Amino acid sequence: MEQREIEIFLMLADELHFGRAAERLHVSTARVSQTIKKLERRIGAPLFERTSRRVELTPIGRVLSDELRPAYQQIHDAIDRATAAACGGCERLRVGFIGAATGKFVLEVAEVFRAEHPNCEVQFHEKQFGAGLGPLRGGEFDMLLAAVPVFGAREADLTCGSVLFEGDRMLAVSARHPFARRPSVSFADLAATKVLRTTQAVPDYWDHALVPQHTPEGRPVERGPSFATAQEMLALVGAGFGAYPVPIQATSYHARPDVAYVPIHDAPPYQWRLVWLSAAETANVRAFDQAAATLAEARRT
């Protein structure tokens, strides 16, 4: 089997969807289908069961996937080690983060990571929320730690790590706003004020996960001016141009006399994850994600 055939087979085994597998590999759906048919002819048995509603591995396909995956990973790890050796054993991992609270966590993860990978230099890059996923896709860094929705098929080229930590949602409002005198607000209250919007660099579904288009009762949520950075958002809020939901960590890292933070009592918490390009995944990326998960778990116990 050629390397590309193995990649296509294993990706389809993961996704169980020809279209999503093709998107993640940046090939056509026809290429995926042709490759699988070629493998099935070579092996002499179906590897996938296909219906109009689902794709599933056959027993033979499952055995092939289980046996191929460790060997394929060993090949990638060997290439990573050889690449590191070619540059004198010096490796580099660039980690992006959004906000001071996430930056502090990234620094702590880096200390755990360096204990096991002393030859890998970890570089840190703060990015503004309005930049969205552009810098990650543009190769400015290898991983991003941010409060992001679960992408699923909508961002098929990305891999999300596990939830590392959470934070309650607060509504940032002007200190002069009537909400500032309340102990808490609800999602329904968003219809009673303008809510700021992020720049267009953030996908619509990501924006809607942060600010619903309608309240639970179906009332539309009016949107206010746009912002690209946290400081722009806070300046607009403080001046009374609108409100915006933020994680509870903002009360410590972005305390301002003109801004009040009010709990949103019926909102799910923000969840922070590491995210990276699936095609650019390396042993160091996986190791850093594991170090982050280990540190997060230690903090919860």
UniProtKB/TrEMBL annotation:
Residues 1-58 form the HTH lysR-type domain. The keyword rRNA-binding does not apply. It comes from the Bacteria. The keyword Transit peptide does not apply. It holds the Pfam family LysR_substrate. GO terms for cellular component: protein-DNA complex. Keywords: DNA-binding, Transcription, Transcription regulation. GO terms for molecular function: DNA binding; DNA-binding transcription factor activity. InterPro entries: LysR_HTH_N, LysR_subst-bd, WH-like_DNA-bd_sf, WH_DNA-bd_sf. PANTHER family: HCA OPERON TRANSCRIPTIONAL ACTIVATOR HCAR (PTHR30346:SF0), TRANSCRIPTIONAL DUAL REGULATOR HCAR-RELATED (PTHR30346). Belongs to the LysR transcriptional regulatory family. This is DNA-binding transcriptional LysR family regulator.
